[in-house]
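Figure-free illustration: sequence to structure, shown twice.
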Amino acid sequence: MKAVIFDLNRFAIHEGPGIRVTVFFKGCPLGCWWCHNPESRSQKPQIVMREQKLNGRTFRVQELVGREISANHLMQEILKEKAFMDESGGGVTFSGGEPLLQTEFLIEMMKHCREQGIHTALDTTGYASKDIMRKVMSWPDLFLYDLKHLDDDIHKKYTGVSNKLILDNLKLIHDSGKDVVIRFPVIPGINDDKAHVEALKFFFKKELPQIRRLDLLPYHNIARHKYEAFSIPDKMRSVDEQKKEDLEKLKAAFKEGGLDVSIGG
């Protein structure tokens, strides 16, 4: 069994507890304006041009983004880091892109990890059919669940898809008793206004009373060079990065709602 990934991040510390290996799956059904990994959008490997500097000169070289990998090969790579994961209480995080686009491979990997006693986290947009979510739901030890906007029209405008499935799947996971951390990308002028923050606090209290952890993921523009490389319009070019004081205010506002809030995961 094989899948297409675009990165394997060892010693990751922001995608779940402890020291982790993060596997980045290629392919995503959303087209978020602020996406930090635009190379993840297509599920196929891509050849792009990038600049490389050497001895004061700049060269343009080809780079292959994305590679096919078997479940056995990927597991071998993960097991190389098992001592660090065991010592730190870490594990493996499956991210992307959207791992649920490659469901069978994802389940296969989580089975292998469970056999080896390795903690697993699934970092997901939640945009998948309920049948797929039910099929996957029992395998991860932890869900890192992206929540971008509660208003469906605004969600469609900035991500290209409705949030109905996302919210329904989130409720499904919550009601199953699974461990869930909400990850909220804070995008200036799009989802950080007071009205939306209050709506989120009410939503958490009413619909998700068992979820106590919220990660605020600040918008940054370090991926701008990638948009040009992949010929994707950068619709956030004029948006400045988040100010620390604004994030602290948001953190305080959500903590008032009884949530355990962190900035940056």
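We now fold a second protein in the same way, so the two outputs can be compared directly.
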Amino acid sequence: MNLTRRRGAIAFFITLGVCLTALAVTLNITWIHHNGRRLAIDLVGVILFGILIAGVVLNTVFLVREIRRNEQQDSFLNAVTHELKTPIASIRLYLDTLQRRTVDEPQRKKFYNIMRSDTDRLLNTVEQVLKAGELGQRDRDRRRTRVELHPLVAECVATVCSRHHLGPDEINLLDVPGRVRLFVMGNVEDLRTAISNLLDNAVKYSPNGVQVTCRLAIEHYTWVTLSIRDQGLGIQPRELKRIFNRFYRSSSMDRIKIKGTGLGLFLVRTIAQQHGGDVRAISEGLNKGSTMLLRLPLAIGAASPGNTAT
């Protein structure tokens, strides 16, 4: 219902803006036609007309953007509420069961594992929201060290496999050609967040089986690129850039009811830009998988003792 109202409001303001613009053009042409011999008055009229049109267009654009922003924020609040409420309800249910009933040891261990998984999900949601607020702090630049990427990516792969209960072959991290050690200057926690979010997305968008390949490579001698390729749902061409916007949720989610905060890829893009790099998505379309490319500037030179993180 709210979505229908917002779309109706957007259509209304666009229609209103077009009608007002058409009316202004008609009045201006009529006015010039009746006063065609007064050059100075015509010049003033054209200037005022331009100001009027610009005001109408800017007002319409502003209103439409505000409506869309409110819609995205409502979607974000609904998603966060669900991501917080669902694991809490699950944990409470299992705790009540353990308290009221006699449960044998295997079942008890199963309950504990489920509650641990729900706790990890809850913690991940909270960390996503907190990280979105922390990235704007200027003092984060002072906490940068020389980070070796391959061990960091391997650590993130292990964490994601454990979180989603994946087998050892479902996320495959290839060795760097020549076993070259690749370093970047960065905040290790932020880089860990970016890599983990990309891996989480690759897993979540592979509902029919996880088959993810990660590869590190040198680009143009001064850049290192991490590519994460999945065989999942894919991305529509018109969404390849939008998916990195704050609160944006791909239409692919509607087909399999994937939940999330809409902050994951926004955090990846923000972290990449703060490290002097970028991130982009490649996909041939729906059901054809996708590739995420995280590019960062190489840190060239010898590492100082105590200034290397993995």
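Summary for the second example: Strands lie at 145-148, 171-173, 183-186, 212-219, 223-230, 278-282, 290-297, 308-309.
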